[in-house]
Specification:
Mean pLDDT: 93
Structural class: mainly alpha
Number of strands: 0
Strand content: under 5%
Radius of gyration: 16 Å
Helix content: 55-70%
Distance between the termini: 21 Å
Number of helices: 4
Shape: flat
Amino acid sequence: MIDATYADFQRLMPRDAAPSLEGARNVLDQLAAIGTDVPSKDVKDYVDLGVIDSLKRDGYFARLQQTYPVK
């Protein structure tokens, strides 16, 4: 069971671990659907990709890929 769960994690998780904006929109929609007060419908009010974007620009993820290639 653990191996299957980890295999799914590897398959589904982006290499940069960036959250999906589509997934975040879905969460906001689901919260609103169950009556939770959602002050803003703008995903960018909740998700900040600035750090991940900066790491990409700096080549951090590219260096990780070279050091630890996907098998």
